[in-house]
Amino acid sequence: MNNKLHLSDHLVLLAGVFFMVTPVLLTFITSTHDAITIYREGVQFLPGDQFLQNYETVLFRAGGFTKEVDGFVMLKNSLILGLGFAIGKIVISMLAAYAIVYFRFPFASLCFWVIFSTLLLPLEVRILPSYEIVQSLGMVNTYSGLIVPLIASATGTFFFRQFFLSVPDELLEAARIDGAGPWKFFKDILVPLSKTMIAAIFIIMFVYGWNQYLWPTLMTTDESLFTLVRGIKQIMQVWVGSQIPAFNEAMALAILAMLPPVIVVIVFQSWFVKGLVESDK
Amino acid sequence: MRQSAVHLSGALMKKVQFQSRTVPFLLLLPQLAIVTIFFLWPAAEAVQSSFYLEDPFGFGATFVGMDNFTDTLTSSDYGRVARFTGVFTFFVTFLSLGIALLLAVKADKVLRGASSYKTLLMWVYAVAPPVAGLIGVLLFDQHVGPITEFFALLGWDMQIGVSFFDTSFAMTVTAVWKQVPVNFIFFLSGLQGISKSVQEAASIDCRSGFRRFWTVTFPLLAPTGFFLLIINITYAFFDTFGIIDVVLKGEPGNNPVTLVYKVYLDGFRGNDLGGSSAQSVILMLLVFILTVIQFRLIERRVHYT
Amino acid sequence: MATITLDTVRKVYAGNVEAVKGVSIDIADGEFIVLVGPSGCGKSTLLRMVAGLEDITTGEVKIGDRLVNNVDPADRDIAMVFQNYALYPHMSVYNNLAYGLKNRGMAKDEIDRRVKEAAGILEIGNFLDRRPRQLSGGQRQRVAMGRAIVREPAAFLFDEPLSNLDAKLRVQMRVEIKRLQRSLGTTSVYVTHDQLEAMTLADRLVVLNGGVIEQIGSPISVYDKPASTFVASFIGSPAMNLLPVTVRDGGLALTNGSGLSGKNANGADSYTVGVRPEHFEVVETASADAAVTADVTVNVLEPVGAESFLYASFGEGGPEIVVRVSSHAQYQPGQKLVLQAMPEDVHFFDADTGKRID
């Protein structure tokens, strides 16, 4: 291996980093200027002096893109959606996967196929009937209407099933000789063993829940339930027909909407990568 | 999480299991309830209403057989959208896979700064599609966007939201940008999964690094590649919804939309329940076929390793 | 402490695969029984049926006087040591030992006493706070043993517990298991495919093949009087030389080839004759008392240190035999030799069934 070869490798990688990072960097820089400057001079390449003011406006003042809520409330709602979805999904899918892997019972394969058939149909293709059913159940503009239908897909169950199948059989046998029943085995052995897996799937599910767009758009018409990502749609509706689009505040909202999941992914990078890659094996 | 695929090979059951009739059903109850109410029921409704013509004012529905399907499939509008979806999917898949593969191969090679590169190249995974769309809107904006300014220098006057081609271009670039990280992560982990001794054997057998890549590394990566191909097609179909919606600012007009976006448009804006349902069912079939292919490929992938 | 009784135990898996075909064994209190056989012979299945980890298709398993066919593994008063140890990876060594006792609702100080005592016996007292992954293979093996000991069970069940260790450690642990079992006096059933391990550990060997018992007996009696050609070739290393012979002119001759002669001991027309490698003697001329004499050509001499193995064959295309010789013996490939074996060292087996003929 000579140095020249390495230099070209680094150049390619740097170009890749430029392609991936610059758009977000420009988004951030834009969020630190005032709207007039951007409108007059185009997107800026150096940070401006409106950082505090723009973020304060977006976080704590209602009446920009949304009429009643500020960014802070949306942040809270995003957190509820992300956490509620991730936790709900993990709990429900761990229980289901435990039943499927560790129990012999009638209709086991039927249950298995019913649950795993959900992998075949993404929410987007059954969006209208899903909306109507949730509406008929009176769950529009509720947190449960926002979260529970998203849990219907069996990805988490599938993931835990794969993991449980990889746990050596002898552990269950040793536990049975040690007098552990189904509940004790789950609580004392399986859940502690799955810790890393739970962390990995939690990160992926949190990001997935936080980033939901179409479903919250349909489910929440009440602004007090808007998430940050849902709020993005509001920007577009305010902009149609406006003279000077408030790019600065829009981009501040975008930065706020991406910051928590990005931080989670970067901080827990190794778990996240493991979760993503392992779940497909 | 469409990344997860149906993988049914290997041991389906444990050698030793608990025997109980009630406990497993109690454990399964929450999942089964949610699946039944929010998945099976709506899916059944979609199939059913695809055979009915709904009165726009909500006064009942009439059975029309396959009419919704024939209407959908023969309409020129649907053909146009289907064609765009195909082209869009092709470019998004091809470009995001290609860029990610290139970056993964390089990231696997360098020693210095490898983990920094890795982090910098993958964190965009966490950016929501509509947020990516918003960034695209900024960068491609007709008045302030630096990309538009750059192309103006080359004599291309971009008009996002007006020109069909320019809008498609902006959507594709944004969608590729958003998808590179996932592919990068999978390719890199695939590359790192190739055993060192195989690579060393190859470097003894073959001097040219380029040839070595195409004859040894690439075939060994092929299973990951096939798998990602399906993942990317599903991404381009479904997960780009947020990008498209934001780039179009909710006003499709004559602009490019994908099949999934059209389901949403016809169902929620156009109030064409039967037509939208028929489109849903067509998409269901498509996803089903993709999943079957994916299942087959994964089976093969397992034998490969 | 207890006896274990297996009465015509059968195991049939789905798809009518019969893994164990009616096995009966009476295991005395305090006895060390080794189930040995090639992989797939049903030895592990048999052990797991005793443990309660596999259902018993038909037949009865009794521990002490109690029929345990439908008793939960935890209630059978047994302890098991697994091949991969099956230690709980997220628990400390202490908790690995204590977990089963806690589940029985034993008092804390009694648990502590037992764990400390077992740790003392096995010399793992310094590792009690560590996790299994921080231990070496040998230490894990000790923890697995400790988990069995603290239960103070009626019987120990071992499922190939040494096969994940390297050769040196395996010998060391083998000696230790034997000593431990002697001092505790606990009835033990031990499964292995390693005949040497089986010989050294067992009070009685149970040789299994294809789900049936080929022979039960003390290691020496099994070695000296193998009940079948299968046992003869499975127990002992290098394996017993088995030669198909035919009766010709009142004497024995190789069925395929020449160079062997011997006395006809029974009335049949053909046999399989077995001679262990150490029972062939290199001589100038065969003695009149010899039961079998062989004219062979040396193929190769394999020194292993304390002794050497001589591989030789009966002419072109004839069968090859192995002979245990002194490590100082010098033989050249191609050299012609005369071998003899005395009557008490020659085994006869039925040519068709492979059963021993006395």
TrEMBL record, chain A:
Presence of the UniProt keyword Cell inner membrane in the record: yes
Lineage of producing organism: Bacteria, Pseudomonadati, Pseudomonadota, Alphaproteobacteria, Hyphomicrobiales
Organism for this UniProt entry: Roseibium denhamense
PANTHER family xrefs: ABC TRANSPORTER PERMEASE PROTEIN MG189-RELATED-RELATED, SN-GLYCEROL-3-PHOSPHATE TRANSPORT SYSTEM PERMEASE PROTEIN UGPE
Known role: Part of the ABC transporter complex UgpBAEC involved in sn-glycerol-3-phosphate (G3P) import. Probably responsible for the translocation of the substrate across the membrane.
InterPro entries: MetI-like, MetI-like_sf
UniProt cross-references to Pfam families, sorted A to Z: BPD_transp_1
Keyword Membrane: yes
Keywords tagged on the record: Cell inner membrane, Cell membrane, Membrane, Transmembrane, Transmembrane helix, Transport
SUPFAM superfamilies from the UniProt entry: MetI-like (SSF161098)
Name of the coding gene: ugpE
Family: Belongs to the binding-protein-dependent transport system permease family.
Name assigned to this protein: sn-glycerol-3-phosphate transport system permease protein UgpE
Transmembrane portions of the chain: 12-30, 79-101, 107-128, 140-160, 189-210, 250-272
Superkingdom of origin: Bacteria
Subcellular locations according to the entry: Cell inner membrane; Cell membrane
Membrane topology: Multi-pass membrane protein
Automatic annotation (TrEMBL), chain B:
Entry-linked Gene3D superfamilies: MetI-like
InterPro entries linked: MetI-like, MetI-like_sf, UgpAE/MalFG_permease
Superkingdom per UniProt: Bacteria
CDD domains referenced in this protein's UniProt entry, alphabetically: TM_PBP2
Secretion signal span: none
Keyword Membrane (UniProt): yes
Domain ABC transmembrane type-1: 86-294
Location in or out of the cell: Cell inner membrane; Cell membrane
UniProt entry keywords in alphabetical sequence: Cell inner membrane, Cell membrane, Membrane, Transmembrane, Transmembrane helix, Transport
Xref: Pfam families: BPD_transp_1 (PF00528)
Its biological purpose: Part of the ABC transporter complex UgpBAEC involved in sn-glycerol-3-phosphate (G3P) import. Probably responsible for the translocation of the substrate across the membrane.
Protein name, as recorded: sn-glycerol-3-phosphate transport system permease protein UgpA
Organism: Roseibium denhamense
Lineage: Bacteria, Pseudomonadati, Pseudomonadota, Alphaproteobacteria, Hyphomicrobiales
From TrEMBL, chain C:
GO-annotated molecular function: ATP binding
Keyword GTP-binding recorded: no
Record's keyword terms, sorted: ATP-binding, Cell inner membrane, Cell membrane, Membrane, Nucleotide-binding, Sugar transport, Translocase, Transport
Residue ranges of every copy of the ABC transporter domain listed in the record: 4-235
Family note: Belongs to the ABC transporter superfamily.
NCBIfam families registered for this protein in UniProt: PRK11650.1 (NF008653)
Protein name: Carbohydrate ABC transporter ATP-binding protein, CUT1 family
Species annotation: Roseibium denhamense
